[in-house]
Amino acid sequence: MALLKTLAETYDVYADLAGEVRNDQPVLLPLSHSTFNAQIEVTIDEEGNFIKSERLEKGSWAVTMIPVTEDSAARSSGIAPHPLCDKLCYIAGDYTAYTDDNKEKYYEAYMEQLAEWAESEYTHMMVQAVYKYLKKKSLIHDLVSCNTLELDDGGRLTDSFKIQGLGQTGANVRFVIYGSSLMEVWKSPELYSRYDAFYRQKAGEKRLCYVSGNMEACSDKHPSKIRNSADKAKMISGNDESGFTYRGRFTSKEQAVSVGYEVSQKAHNVLRWLIQKQGYTRDGSTIVSWMVNRDMQIPDITQDSVNAFGNIDDFGFDFRDFDVPDTIGMNKNDTGKYFAEQFQNAVNGYVGKIKANDRAAVIALDAATTGRISIVYYDEMGAWQYMDAILDWQKHCKWRRTVTVGKAEEGKKRITCECTPSPRDMALAAFGTQRSEWLDADSKLIRATINRLLPCITKIGMKIPQDMIRAVTRRASMPQSMSEFVWRNDVLCVACAMIRYNYEKEGKTMDNFLSDNVDDRNVLFGRLLAVYDYMEQRAMFEYDESGKIKERRTTNAKRYWNAYSSRPAKTFQTIKQNMVSYERKLSNYKLKKFEEWTREIMIHLDNEKFVNTPLSELYLPGYYYQMEYMIQEFRRTDDVQGE
Prior knowledge:
Elements: H1 2-13, E1 33-37, E2 40-45, E3 50-55, E4 63-67, H2 70-73, E5 86-87, H3 88-91, H4 95-99, H5 104-118, H6 125-134, H7 139-145, E6 162-163, E7 166-167, E8 172-178, E9 182-184, H8 189-200, E10 206-208, E11 215-219, H9 253-256, E12 259-260, H10 261-278, E13 280-282, E14 285-291, H11 336-351, E15 359-369, E16 372-382, H12 383-396, E17 399-405, E18 413-419, H13 423-431, E19 433-435, E20 438-440, H14 443-458, H15 466-476, H16 484-504, H17 513-516, H18 521-540, H19 556-559, H20 561-566, H21 568-578, H22 580-583, H23 588-604, H24 619-636
Parallel strand pairs: 2-8
Antiparallel strand pairs: 1-4, 2-3, 5-8, 6-7, 8-9, 10-11, 11-12, 13-14, 14-15, 15-16, 17-18, 19-20
Helix pairs in contact: 1-10, 5-6, 13-14, 13-15, 13-16, 15-16, 18-23, 18-24
């Protein structure tokens, strides 16, 4: 009930936008309205005379806002006409004559309902025009005369001919009224408000609304189409009187839940709008976060820390100002530090706009069954609390990696900087397999992992589950199963970010990780692996005149990596033996440096630690930091030509 109340409050904040069409932006539906995809558009005059018709191509502009009743919005079978725009079988009086499918009762029910509206005090000129025209029972005849519909050789309307890939008989029709100007019935705010007033005065018996606590007309049939226009799943449903929806606990569905019609309409309409406007919908999961009490955009927790603010229109940061490197930490002109400073200034400016009484909410939806939506996560908090949690997450769960930034229309760019991976990045790093140039995984596994990460983001102090850390550590321990860039950028760096989060939640810091863990066996073995990996790289790779590597081959360290993580002492001896021939290719200076680093590590890795006990996840940041340190050391001495 708290969720529905919050959504209804959000609708009230944006109520002035209801029914407004702004460019290609999603439309917040007015109360008692829904949408369908129109296949046919009919133009008539104010007196109900036919002028023309046309087929509509498939696309977002064919999505049409229509007035609905409780029954028509939830219809799946039976006769339940929409009040104005509907399918041919409802609005065409000559449908039966052209199809031999007797739909007279559908047409009669539609006309009876339309007549009631047209003759009421809430009528409108457009409603009366449509009523006058459809009374003539000539719709299909007119559509055929304009070649909008096609008949077979027997003069019958069949589904052999398609509109937008659908059979003609199931086509949805919308109307345009030609008067002093062209008036599209689905874009008239006045028509929206008049229908809402007309439908409300027909409300039945009042009951207690469990959301508002008031006695009001309640709804037994709640809207679908929450995640998209084809979505039939519902958040509230109690039509299974013979199953287990409420049997054994209540004698009627009203005892289980009773929600006011207005509250239900507001909650479902604004949730649908928020999902279309700023929601994350992927892998069968839908997640949306929003400001409850006022019109202010908030960071998207489903994105990495850089792109999380990309949906905020007035965010004081322009990605186009940056010329960025394409590699990870290998470009001398790295702009990552400057990027981080400017980005942090923009974040601070945004946070300064938040007020003490602002509230934020997060919801995650999943499909429980074909007709039911499961709310897998919901949380509501003060906006300050929300931002504190997000900034804490972004501060501690971060690592240096390459990300794509900017909006598509501005031209996307790649930048290397310290940033927090998105929850989906983490799920792919833990369970993904490389497909072509990216990671992929089972959609159920991805969304289950993302849902488990949401509380870690919104609640300060909650660690990433340890089984997830183990999973991402296993994936990072198999560099041979993916390309070098994908392994390093999308798995190793993401794994290190997740490890860092849990590590720093224990009151520690990664600022001096190697010196703080100089006696930690796991870190020492990770550093040792980095030394032998980089030693072989320096000895094995050949460079062209420009300093680029001619050919990159897999090192022994990476070939034995998985075994090394499980049996480090034994596997190290194998790697060391295989390095003998490569050591001869190193210059005296290089060999001396690698021997120096090896001795430094082995001093702390005594006999008690040099055993085959499997390594913990801390060996990964140990490897990463040691590798970065060695690369920087060689750069400072200008002993390498390029990387």
